[in-house]
What does this fold into?
Amino acid sequence: MRWLRWESSRRADELPKHPYRDTALAYALLAGLVVVVALATGGGLVRALVTAAIVYLVATLWSWRNWRNRLRANASREQDGD
It folds into this structure.
């Protein structure tokens, strides 16, 4: 089996410049997609908006918690290395 790999200018352990903002934007786009799909398939607008908002909030908070832990771990590793 052959795996596709994209070359990146970033190392795997390197963090993006704006992890919190990028995460919020990505989940906002996905929430918007949920609303569009719901409307396209005949779903209710209010139900789609409420579902998208709840999923957006939970996913964003979870990701932000993970970013915070990762940033703290990196800071701790850098401090120990000095």
Summary: The first helix runs from residue 19 to 40. The two ends are 43 Å apart (CA to CA). The chain has one domain: 19-81. The mean pLDDT is 88.
